[in-house]
Amino acid sequence: MSKYWIAAGIAILFAIAAVATWFLMRRRQGWSHSISVHLVFIAMMFGTILTVRQVAYMLLRDYQITDITTDMVRTASAFVMALLAMQQLFQLINRLTRSQIDRGNDATSARMVARILKLAIFAIIMLLFGEHFGIGLSGLLAFGGIGGIAIGVAGKDVLSNLFSGVMLYFDRPFSIGDWISSPDRDIEGTVVEIGWRLTKIRTFENRPLYVPNAAFSTISVVNPGRMTNRRITTTIGLRYEDADKLATVVEHIREMLKGNRNVDQKQTLLVNFDSFGESSLNILVYCFTKTTIWAEWLAAQQEIYLSIIEIVHSQGADFAFTSETLYMQQTSQDTPPQTDGEGTNR
Fold first, then answer.
1. Which of 281, 275, 285 is nearest to 307 (CA)?
2. Where are the alpha helices (DSSP H) in the chain?
3. For the segment 285-301, what is each residue's pLDDT rounded down to a tens digit?
């Protein structure tokens, strides 16, 4: 009987150590992100499970229990340990992934590495515990060969999306958080997630759009989110009667843009009399802002446009509007002679 008390004491010690480790992981963020702490917790839980399994073996042997076999106990304990190890390691990977994203690291890389690690852990656990479930290494290899052919034939589209997802990771045409669009398809929005099979995009109507990864191997993708500058381009039309003020207006607008804090002076800056319009003298304004944020770009553009209006009016000029000039010509005609009441000419 004493052996049962000893085994129970050992199991209780392992359980107390596991609970204490779990409590500390919950209370301290540094411990929850520590690989060694998670390994200690897994080891304590494994010790508890193995001790309980040994007690079950002793009970089956001492009391001649036939309804439950040792193989059943061994399989159940291996299954619990495999699930526990997988759950804890997956949880650790998720916490490390969130930590890397919070530090400002690339979310796409962090999540892709997390998926690869989870897949590797699953394969390792299957190799370690497969024997307990009646799955040997030779069986896994045979299943991999036959299953690979079957999956390749039946799941061609799935595999295409899978490999395309891997290529998206290596080629990096876009990352999570980028605004993308495609001139070939009706695709435009912000990338929310790049999965194994699908890429989730949130459109500007806040609707989720799911695009198979294989689609990106056959279409062109524009990534405005990686632009270095936003462009301001417009055409200003002055009245033809302001032709004598045109050169002065052009020079003042150019000087205003050169002194504007929002305009990137390293990029192309053009202010030139561009063309003769039907009802206006057209001035081309072309420059780039330092910011790429849409709201800030709109504010900078508004400031520049208001300054242009002020410059035009300060020079005594004004903006042209669509108009037509109609020239009317009078033609001389002979007036009929006037007669008096008697019918004689005057």
1. 285
2. 2-27, 29-32, 35-62, 70-102, 107-129, 137-154, 156-171, 246-258, 294-314
3. 999 999 988 899 999 99
* Beta sheet of 281-289, edge-to-edge order: 230-238, 281-289, 270-276
| Cα-based distances in Å from 8 to 5, 24, 55, 84 | 5, 24, 8, 21
Pairwise CA distance, residues 322 & 324, whole Å: 7
* Higher-scoring residue by pLDDT: 205, 6: 205
pTM over 0.70: no
How far is it, in rounded angstroms, from Cα 153 to Cα 247? 71
The amino acid occupying position 281 is L
Q: What CATH number is given for 227-314 in this structure?
A: 3.30.70.100
Torsion of CA 283, 284, 285, 287, to 10 degrees: -160
44-69 residue pLDDT tens? 888 888 888 888 888 888 777 777 88
Is it true that domain 157-225 has CATH number 2.30.30.60?
yes
Domain boundaries, the chain: 2-134, 157-225, 227-314
Helix (H, G, I), strand (E, B) or coil at 328: coil
